[in-house]
Amino acid sequence: MPVTLPRLSLRGGAALLLALGIVAGPALAASGASTSPVARTAVAAAGTPVSFTLLVPLTVRPTATGLIDATTLATYTAPLGMLTRQLDAVIGTPAVIGVDPMIIASIRVLGTDAPASALDWLARLQGLNNEVFALAYSDADLASLARVDALNLRDPIGFDTVIDPSHFGPAATASPTPTAAATGTPSPSPSPTAGNGSAKPALPTSTDEVLDWAYTLQHIAWPADDTLVSGDLSDLGAAGYKQVVLTSTNLSATDSGLVDLGSVQGVVADAGVTSLVREAVSSSDPATLQDALGRLNSALGGMEAVSPGRTIVATLDRHWPLGSLNLSGLFADLGGQASVRTVGLSAVLAGAHPDARLTDEPGDAARTASLRSILAATAQEDSFATVADTPTAITEPRRLQLLSLLAVSWLRGTDDWATQANDYLTASVKLRSSVQIVGGSDLFVGAGSTNIPVTVSNALSVPVTVLVNVSSPSSVLQVQKQNVALKIEPGSSNKAAIPVQALTNGTVTTSVTITSASGVPIGTPDSVRVDLQPGWESVGTTVIIVLLVLIFGGGIARNVVKRRAARRADAPVERSAEAEADRD
C-alpha cells in the first residue's frame, strides 16, 4: 500500500530530514562513525522547544437561508450531533477556536422556539476557557470578497424578518457602561433570559445584539487556504482586520508563525505540519493515529533543532468528520514531547513578526466572473428594494443568502458551487420581477378628458408603493398628472387612474412606467394604444339637440294646428246662435 507523505514547506522538510539525522547521530557515533557538522551544530542548538498553536474552525454546512432552522439545530446539538462533536473535541484542550457567528445568531433569533439542546450548547461554548475569535458570518470567504472589492458586504444587514417578537420578552434596556471597544476588554454576552424576571429572552433590537459575543481575540480574518493575492491585503487592512490566517505555501519562506505583510500581519499555518495534524486528528484507528503522531513529532523536533523557540501554527480545515476529532489525543501526545510546548494564538501575536512577502496564488477566473455577476445582481436588488415600504424586508434575507453562498466550504471542490451561484442569480431575477405593470388593452377616448387605467401587481410578501407615469409622444394627447402614487398590498394588485386630455382626433401609443419613491425604475415598461375621437362628443351633442328641437317643435306645431282647427269648427255655431238671438 503506498504511503502518502505530507506536503511540507521547504524549511519544514529540511527540518524533518535534520531531525532524522539527529536521531541517527548517536547510533552512528556508537558504531565509530562521525556525525556531520550540521548535525553536531543542531544538537548544540537544541533545547528551546517550539511553540505550537492549533486553530480549529467551528462551522456547519452552508444553508440556503444563511441561518440554521430549529429542527436542524436540534439535530446538530444532539449528543452525537455535528456541533456537539466539535465542541466536545476542543473542550479541555488549548485549541484556538474560530466560531461562525451564524451559529450564535441562529440560536438567538429563535427566542423561546430555540431547542433546549441548542441553548445548552451555547452555554457550554460561553463557558470554554479556550481563546475564541469570530470567523466571517456564515464563514464567508473574505479573500473572495476582497478580490471583487466587496468586503463591505461581509456583515448581515439585520434579522428583523426572522425574529418573532412573541418568542421574546421586553427589549433589554441599554446599559451606559463602557463597551468592549472602549475598554479593550470583551463585553459579556447577553444572558439567555431577559434579565427582568421574564422567562423569555430579551427582544433583540439591533444586529449587534444578535451577534454580540465575548470573543477573546479580535480583528482576525481566516479565508480559505491558498487563496490570497497581494491586492487582498490592503483591502483586508482597510476593512479593519489586523491579522489574516494564511498557509506557508501562500507566502515567501519564513520560520515564524507571525509575519509582517505591510497592511496586516500574517498568521502563518505551516503547510506540512498542518497536513500531519489534520491526518492525526481524523485518524479512525490507533495504528493510523500513532503513525501520524510519530511523523508529526519528527517534523516538530526537526524544526526545534533548526530554529529553537520558533512559533508554529497549524489549522484544521472546514470539515465535518463522521466521528469525533481526536484533539485530546493530539495534545496529550504533544504534551509529552520535550521539543514542543502548546500556546494560544495570543502568545503568537505577541511574538516576533519578521517581514515576509505574499506569493500570489492563481485565482479561479470562472469563479471570479460568477462573483462579479452575483454582486451586480445584489446591487440591482438593493435598488429594487426601495419599492418596498420597508426595504430591509427584502435586503436582509438576501444578504444572509449571499454570505452563505460565499462560505469557505464551497471552495473545497466537493460541492457544486456553480449550481448554487446560478440558483442565486435566478432567484435574483425573479425577485426583481415581483412588481410589474399588468399589460393593458387598447383604449378608446371619445371625450376630451378621461383617465388611462394602469394596473400594477405585487408578488412580494411585503407591501410596496410605486409612482405611476404615462408618457405621450404627441401633443394631441396631454397627460395631466405624473408620479401618481399607488400602494399595492402583498400578493395582490391595484389600479391607478392617470388623467389625460385629448385635443383632437388621432392615435397615440403611450409609454407606461413605474418607479420606486426614490426614482428607481421598477419592472418592464408597458405601452397602451389610445384611439382619440374627441369630435364624437360635439357630434353627439348636436344630434341630441336636433332631436330635442324636432320633438318639442313638432309637439308645439301640432298643438297650434289643433287649436286653429277647433276655432274654425266653433265659429259657425257661434254665428247661428247670434242669428237666432237677433230674430228673437
UniProtKB/TrEMBL annotation:
* Region (Disordered) residue spans: 170-203
Q: Is Repeat found in the keyword set?
A: no
Tell me yes or no: is Transmembrane among this UniProt entry's keywords: yes
Q: Name one Pfam family in it.
A: DUF6049
InterPro entries attached to this UniProt entry: DUF6049
Where is there biased composition of kind Low complexity?
Answer: 170-199
The domain of life is Bacteria
**Which positions carry the signal peptide feature in this UniProt record?**
1-29
Q: Which chain regions cross the lipid bilayer? A: 539-561
Task: Please identify the protein, giving its name as recorded.
Answer: DUF6049 family protein
Per the UniProt record, the source organism is: Lysinimonas soli
